[in-house]
Amino acid sequence: MSGEMSPTGKRSDSGSSPGLRASHADRDRVVDVLRIAAGDGLLDADELDERVELALAARTLGELAVLTADLPAVSVAADGTAAEVKDVVRIEQVFSGPIERTGRWVLPRRLELAVSWCDVTLDFTEAVITQDTLRIDVAMAGKSLTLVTRPGIEVDVDGLALAHCKLKHRRAPQPEGIPITLRVELVGQKAHGNVVVRPPRRTLGQWLLRRPAS
Predict the structure, then answer these.
(1) Which of 53, 79, 86, 144 is the most exposed place for a label (fewest CB within 10 A)?
(2) Is 182 exposed, middle or buried, given 0-12, 13-18 or 19+ CB atoms closer than 10 A?
(3) Percentage with pLDDT > 90 across the chain
(4) Which domain covers residue 12, as residue numbers?
(5) Are residues 153 and 196 located together in one domain of the fold?
């Protein structure tokens, strides 16, 4: 796999535009990377303060990238520590409670679902993206498999065989200029139940103002 991962979760060879506006999540991830670097002795206190101040004031991804260009690429866990990127994560569960991956969970390079009669929810809206493609091997029967996406994430279901199962694929709106940062490939078989791909649900306030979910 070519290319290093940037602290904002994008591959350095992905060709994403440095002129794109940075989000609060982008700034937070860069601040986390800077703090980890300072803890490892790569930055002194003055350098850390200066770069954190610049990160919080950054308007574009390009301005953020400059602040970490001379630092090793890392993935950041929810607690702000460096997180190991696993090659394969396998989830096995039968006739049990729901399985959920939400918040800032670190995406593995491949995910295996061996699940029977348990709801599975994979929420990518705040996930730490570690590569441009995530393959999910599905061997699942019953209940629902739900993927929650955001702009910049696309889901490919062409490799998934469905047996007595409904597919509900609602694509997240893609604002102009937003590059695709993650492609999720579903392969394998899903029998009975549903496969749902959708953007996050709107809050009551967003619904009343007819605004999309953030």
Answers:
(1) 79
(2) buried
(3) 42
(4) 1-83
(5) yes
- Residue 149 burial (C-beta neighbours within 10 Å; 0-12, 13-18, 19+): buried
Q: Are residues 198 and 105 in the same domain?
A: yes
Residue 38 DSSP SS3: helix
Residue type, 95: F
Do both 172 and 111 map to the same domain? yes
Is residue 94's pLDDT more than 90?
Answer: yes
* Statement to judge: residues 78 and 96 lie in one domain: no
Tokens of 209: 């103002």
| Mean pLDDT of the region 28-36 | 80
d(CA 100, CA 167): 19
Q: Are residues 27 and 103 in the same domain?
A: no
Q: Total structural domains in the chain?
A: 2
Which two structure tokens, joined as six digits, stand for 8? 């904002």
pLDDT in tens, 83-92: 556 889 999 9
Helices (H), the chain: 24-39, 45-57, 61-68, 204-208
Number of Cα atoms under 13 Å in the Cβ half of residue 139: 8
Give the Cα separation of 180 and 109 in Å (integer).
17
* 35 and 54, same domain (yes or no): yes
CB 59 within 8 A of CB 22: yes
Look at residue 213 and tell me if it is in a domain. Answer: no
